[in-house]
Description:
This protein has helices at 10-22, 29-48, 52-78, 84-108, 118-143, 165-170, 174-204. By secondary structure, the protein is an all-alpha fold.
Amino acid sequence: MSNPLENIAWDQRLARILAGLLAHTSIHPNAVTTLGLMMGLLAGCLFAQGDLVLANWAAGVFMFAAFMDHADGELARLVNKTSTFGHYYDHVAVAVSYVSLFVGMGIGLRHGPLGDWAVPLGVAASLAVVATMSVRMWIEVREGVEAVKQRSIAGFEPEDTLYIIGPVTWLGYDPLFLVAAGIGAPLFLLWVIWKCVQSSKGQGQP
Length: 206
């Protein structure tokens, strides 16, 4: 018999534990989403200061915001308060948090080794992430949730790579992370668009 948890990411498992605790309170899932959004905006603002200590705090705050992205959905399902508004509010909150992260990092690192390239790299990463999420949302509306459901490998999903923002910042490698994001995010967007086009062609064939 297969383990029902084997395809569930580690952070989602932890989110279920937190949701179980929150289920005994009057906290609404959308309030958890709002908390995650506020933490994402705070992380971006802290990164933008260009201060090493504040950047270290920002990394931890963003990791917390990313975790909240799972907790709100788990809580909504647990207390039977799922809604179309809550679903898309969650998407918007995540997108805004990502924009805040990358733009904030770009602003904060503009006086470092990246110089004038820091802000364009941050903007490129943020725009690519938002565009990727928009394409995936379009696919979800068109083909259903299963079409965009991420598969976990060894308990990790592709989006979990953003948790490395903590270690790379604390070790001083955040400029390299921003370069990787500024180049990798647009490339990933092109791949998502290509997969979408290929899927559309496949469905159009007799």
